[in-house]
Specification:
Strand content: 15-25%
Largest sheet: 8 strands, mixed
Number of strands: 15
């Protein structure tokens, strides 16, 4: 029945029917159906490409049903291809794993949010004692809030001041999906380690850049970007971010009535290059990366190999591209996500809490340093 239906209406008045929505999407192998989804359903946050409706707004609801019935084939294909990509990535194995992790955490915490970092901050103190710290901080969405345009994501003076203090207390690494050159210009603090392009570029603090990227794909990327620019020209609000080794296509400012066209044109163009590039979805952005390019986890692994063997590591991120780093740090350090993520050890509720965390970290590290100096003086004085 799902495959026969021209469209599916999921009109939940509270969170529910998420699996039904995804089952309908999974069944649309010919990519001809349309999903009309209540904005109150939990799946509405992750299913870009659906027509979102307020179930209490009857007039707008009926307008969307009319739109689904009259939607041209090319727009249906674009929306459904995007939906199917998301459902394929968030598959049953990932879903079950996430649920089991959450159940285990709920049982062990007896209702208290045990993974909220500020409920467990005291546990950090002994882990930071008597061992150097390697601190990895993601840029967009972590050190700065997510902005409508990437160039608006600027470090606040307060955050910059904290980074300068942490530079003297830790081995500090700033990591981002931005190009290495842009990231260094945005942060503009010398003698740090910088990782750009989701791990494909690394600067070791001595102006030496290491690039991990197959040359054949690197040559194809400008061609791919040019094709996207040409095909997506009619789309208002679309932003192409060229980063040398990778590229990002931002659609945060694309009007809702143009999303269908955007997805259709994007996937049609991307089909030609599918054997050379991996396309992943972030927060209102489609990331284009060569299949064999390093990810953030690869970069973290390399930096850890060159760090003090006795050091402790913390990674703070906010997006799906940070999950590779979270996995690397299992049993080796601590991972913190901005927003809940079952792959991280702890989480913060919102980006604005980062400043408080960094302040607390500075206090802990300075306290440890003072104690070390006092102990050293006592030993010298016999």
């Amino acid at each position: 029945y799902y495959r026969l239906a021209d469209f599916a209406v999921i009109s939940s008045v509270y969170d529910g029917m998420n699996l039904v929505a995804k089952e309908y999407v999974a069944s649309q192998v010919d990519e001809k159906g349309v999903l009309i989804l209540s904005e109150l359903a939990g799946a509405a946050e992750s299913l870009d490409g659906a027509l979102l409706v307020n179930p209490y707004d009857l007039e707008a609801f009926s307008d969307n049903i009319k739109k689904a019935l009259r939607m041209p084939e090319w727009e249906k294909r674009g929306r459904m291809k995007t939906l199917r990509t998301q459902v394929r990535e968030e598959n049953v194995y990932k879903w079950i794993g996430d649920i089991l992790k959450e159940i285990d955490l709920l049982v062990s915490s007896k209702g208290r949010d045990e993974r909220y970092l500020f409920n467990r901050l005291a546990e950090l103190e002994p882990q930071l004692k008597d061992q150097p710290l390697t601190l990895f901080l993601d840029y967009d969405g972590t050190l700065t809030p997510i902005m409508d345009s990437p160039d608006l994501a600027v470090l606040s003076p307060e955050t910059r001041a904290l980074l300068l203090r942490l530079k003297d207390l830790t081995k500090l690494v700033i990591i981002s999906g931005r190009s290495l050159a842009e990231l260094r210009a945005m942060v503009d603090i010398p003698d740090l380690l910088y990782v750009g392009n989701h791990g494909a570029e690394i600067c070791d603090g001595e102006a030496v850049s290491i690039t991990h990227n197959p040359t054949s794909d690197q040559k194809l990327l400008p061609e791919f970007i040019m094709a996207l620019r040409q095909s997506l020209t009619p789309i208002p609000g679309m932003l192409v971010e060229e980063k040398g080794i990778t590229a990002s296509i931002h659609f945060r400012q694309v009007p809702l009535n143009h999303l269908g066209t955007f997805f259709d044109l994007f996937w049609k163009t991307a089909e030609t290059y599918k054997d050379h590039f991996r396309i992943t979805k972030g927060k209102k952005v489609l990331e284009i990366r060569p299949l064999t390019a390093w990810n953030k986890g690869d970069a973290v692994e390399m930096i850890l190999r060159t760090s003090d063997p006795g050091s402790f590591s913390i990674y703070v991120g906010d997006d799906t591209t940070d999950e590779d780093a979270y996995k690397v740090l299992r049993e080796k350090g601590l991972s913190i996500s901005v927003g809940r993520n079952p792959n991280s050890d702890y989480h913060l509720y919102r980006q604005t809490e980062i400043h408080l965390f960094l302040e607390q970290l500075v206090i802990l590290l300075k306290k440890n340093k003072i104690e070390e100096l006092q102990l050293s003086d006592q030993c010298e004085n016999g």
